[in-house]
Design a protein that fits this description.
Three copies of one chain form a homotrimer. By secondary structure, chain A is an all-beta fold. The first copy, chain A, has one domain: Hexapeptide repeat proteins (UDP N-Acetylglucosamine Acyltransferase, domain 1, 3 Solenoid). In chain A, 0% of the residues lie in helices and 34% in strands. Chain A is built from no helices and 25 strands. Chain A has a nine-stranded mixed beta sheet, with no helix packed on it. Chain A has a five-stranded parallel beta sheet with strand order 5-8-11-14-17, with no helix packed on it. In chain A, a hairpin with a 6-residue loop joins strand 23 and strand 24. The first copy, chain A, is globular.
Chain lengths: 193, 193, 193
């Protein structure tokens, strides 16, 4: 189950041919035909990727995560162990609906261990969803959200450390204590300076 | 691992012969001897069904769910991915107790992704447990419960849409905006009209 | 995959030789080289134990649990199904850090189904983490913690039953109604008498 492009553990099931170079698929994964996974990804033990799910480049998905049709992970997303996605907000057994509810996790975002992302929402660039949080709304770029249901608890840097904003003229600004990157906050939106 | 009656993925372990016609058992499942699964069920990847668990007909169990002895799922139940059941409310390692604490999920109920059902409780007919909720009490028929611990947040229709009740004489009534079904609410109990 | 010392299910992957006598490793587990597991443990279906994780004697780990480098489970710990550990409190994809954040679960503690233990913390001896709780702080010996984030909700006996303390001189004392063991509480610390 290995070829020149990517590695698949012998105990993984890989039916798609759309996996990028350098990606690794670990034991007890089931990657279905039609699933799309980019380059240099790490898909850890026991993950399931369904036809219609799309994973970008340099994405990490830790153990036991299922990615359904309708779930899109952009580049450099980190998905912790046991994170749960959904694609139907009104599920009943044996009731089929047309299409599915979409989930978009934007570039560089972190989804903490065991968080639940209710379908129909977007998690912004470099946002940080705390372990065990239950996301039921859209999360802005760099947003730190915690709890059940998840609520805003601040903002984080590209490097994941919390940002402390202070007023500067007509906006608020922060400089990361860990890495020195600078950010501005206006109307609830954080941008890198 | 297929016979005329049901389908089992080659990577599933199926030791029971009590699986009904038309049911499908997917990869990395382990269905133990003595487990009982009805007809036309869909038991998705990585599920575990223990001797003593009972699953009705037309039940959907999404990825990564374990059904222990003492867990009963009636017909048409939907169990989302990563839902957790239990059967011992005072667990300690290497301490055996007599019997186990039971869980009953009644006909047509939905258990959202990642919800936890603490043993010893019943989830009523067509109830809807929100994603990530932690159920520590009995949930009535058609009840919508959310949060940790799960609390009542309203009622849903058979089709899973929220119901809006208004007073009509000595009771409250609702007509589903999606499917038109009608319900009555009296003393916290919803019934179809 | 069995030898004189321990049992491994044929569908388990066991690469370590550091598993104690009498332990059982069930289907779809992946026990990596360098992982350490003591004697008389029960590691249930779909668990993952990484190099650098340490499991004591007589430990129970229910289905679908991953133990990472940095996680230590002392003797007689009970880990419920779907419990999530972590070892990096600032995860980003493709960002390596030196070392990892440690987690210590002390002797006899119970971690309820689906609880999340954020790395960098200790759960005390015979503590009881409720199902679905999200632990973000240290938990004292015999502490009962519930919710998201987990908060103190009382204390439990060695046998897992709740303790009811009453004042006796300069401290509070309790006698377990189930097993008769006696405890003292002073400055938030419970000790067996």
């Amino acid at each position: 189950m290995t070829d020149a492009r990517f590695f698949a553990h012998p105990a993984a099931i890989v039916e798609t041919d759309q996996i990028g170079a350098g990606s690794r698929i670990w034991a007890f994964c089931n990657i279905q035909q039609g699933a799309r996974i980019g380059a240099d990804c790490n898909i850890c033990d026991g993950c399931f990727v369904e036809k219609g799910a799309v994973v970008g480049d340099r994405v990490t998905v830790k153990n036991g995560v299922s990615l359904w049709a309708g779930v899109v992970l952009e580049d450099e997303v980190f998905v912790g162990p046991g994170v749960l996605f959904t694609n139907d907000v009104y599920p009943r057994s044996k009731v089929a609906r047309d299409g599915c509810d979409a989930t978009l996790i934007r570039q560089g975002a972190t989804i903490g261990a065991g968080a639940v992302i209710v379908a129909g929402h977007t998690v912004g660039r470099f946002a940080f969803i705390g372990a065990g949080a239950v996301v039921t709304r859209d999360v802005p770029d760099f947003g730190l959200w915690l709890g059940n249901p998840a609520r805003p608890a601040g903002y984080v840097c590209t490097c994941a450390q919390r940002l402390e904003f202070s007023r500067s003229g007509d906006r608020e600004v922060a400089r990361c204590r860990a890495c020195g990157r600078e950010f501005a906050l206006r109307n609830g939106q954080v941008t890198a300076r």
